[in-house]
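Exercise 3.2. Students should predict the tertiary structure of the chain below and write it as structure tokens, then compare their answer with the key that follows.

Predict this chain's 3D structure.
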Amino acid sequence: MKKSNHPIDKSKLEDLYKRYHTKAFLQEDPIQFVHQYKFSIKDQEVVAFIVSTLAFGQRKVMNPFIGQVLSHLGSKPYKAVYDFVIKDTSQLESLCYRFIKGIDLINLIYRLHMVLKTYDSLEALFVEGYKETESIKSAVTHFIETLSRISIPEEWAYKTIHRDRNFKFLLASPSRGSACKRFHLFLRWMVRKDNVDLGIWKKIPKKALLIPVDTHVARVSKALNLTERKTPDWKMAEEITSNLRILDGKDPVKYDLALFGLGVSDHSL
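Answer key:
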């Protein structure tokens, strides 16, 4: 796609931010599931991570699948994950969404279970990686590597032998150059606070966040000269965010949905 030379229209992005960051937006976006647990921050955190990790593909198929996964965790998902017993998984094992199978879900939830047993919250693990360098990249890498090092019990390990590629897809890492779109989405939900984002993490500043880069955001960002990179990778996320900080140095990622909305609605860009 040929790059446009028109400047960034901050007022247009601000208008789009106001349009999308409303409660009406929750009706279709996967974050709707997180808002259903408004009486428990611990439940919201666990649900947000699971939902964001599974947030890929078409919403009309993705959202029902996420609903199925959450239904197996019941009304108290934090407790369900904290008390997770890997032998009680027959219903989870039967689920399937595209190339993600039930065993991949069990693999993920068991690792989250072990993190909660050790840290009590996902925030504590993330902050552990962030506080050393105050780097989102270091914190995400630390988080993913910690989950990756957890060993699956022997009686289930043989089922995950050929699923490593799927696990790496679900938990993409900066160390592999990934843009880590879904992890940045999770962080946006956790750190920012408005009608859409929950803002339940208090130890990570909004200005440190990076934009979640998907195909829509990448295309629009190229058109708006927010990036010169061709591949939607970690460096593209850094470059786009750096340019958005010119518009709002304290909260650059507020424009995520604005860029996404432009990508969906304006195909001339």
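Discussion points: Confidence is low (pLDDT under 50) at residues 1-6. Residues 102-119 form the longest helix (18 residues).
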